[in-house]
Amino acid sequence: MQTRSTNNVREAARLIQGREIVAFPTETVYGLGANALDEKAVAKIFIAKGRPADNPLIVHIYSEKQLSLLVKKIPNNAKKLMRAFWPGPLTIVLPRKKIIPPNVSAGLSTVGIRMPAHATARKLLQYAHTPIAAPSANTSGKPSPTSWKHVYDDLHGKIPLILKGKNAQHGIESTVIDCSHAQPVLLRPGSITLEQLEKVIGPIQTKISKKSPAASPGMRHKHYSPRARVKIITHPKEIPARSTRCAYIGLEKCARKIVCKHPQNEREYAQQLFAFFRVCDRKNIRVIYAQRVTNKGVGRALMDRLMRAAGKK
Ligand code: TXA
Ligand code: MG
Description:
Order of helices and strands: EHEEHEHHEEHEHEEEHEEEHEH
Helix content: 25-40%
Radius of gyration: 19 Å
Bound molecules: threonylcarbamoyladenylate, magnesium ion
Oligomer: single chain
């Protein structure tokens, strides 16, 4: 299959309506979308990505009106979060209706819903006239794509079309919160921070046992990993002097003449991390040293991605 790229949103929407899959930009990372109500179209996503079938997809919507079609009830906590953070990088897990094919939610009784803020994503949802199921548009296990070229590198020959946009603004995936039970649970930290969420709905559970049914199944799989080994360090001076084919990313400047990235702050660090992983793989780097950050604000999401990339989670 030949993979084309385009700026034409209507063309992408036509493919979605024609049971095809299309990669598209969002404010977090690029997604690989299909009509969320069409089991056969959704199945193509799993094949293209090589995604395990037990990992559910997020359903993207254009307007809150579509919600009543998809979910059984919307608890008050969820309503408050939607009012505060939608459209935006927040996915809310709710009890699903049967109209959602089982492969979208990997057989769970819930579904994750997100209303993206990205203008192109919104147009695609509007023109396609249907909710769109979409995971990140990377090969399963690789870092999520933050530019359309990353999507091309991973999936060319496997998908018909990439809808192009600017590089992703947040660079890490949406925050996922489970509101299907009385006690809300943070399943995946993201750029909407725990502190921001708690300001709106009060205390949120963050410790999830890997066996609990609430655990985000995707978080059990290996994720976000470059080919290089990732080592988390506190300061760049810990990089061994004789280490070769190594690279460094962190807020503290590194004086060594190695492949380096120095983001200005934690938001920038998150935005640049996955692209840096991909650069390192292209340069055949062996070890990536990444400086730790505090577990506060967006630092929580950043540490989560770093720990996973380092195989520590
Ligand atoms: O920012 C994002 O969320 C991007 C863009 C494209 O929207 N999408 C994304 O999708 O990151 P994906 O499939 O790579 O990650 C979805 C995460 C996985 O960890 C999955 O297990 C979890 O959300 N998830 C989805 N539905 C769920 C459900 N019903 N219950 C628990 N976790 C769920
Ligand atoms: Mg993903």
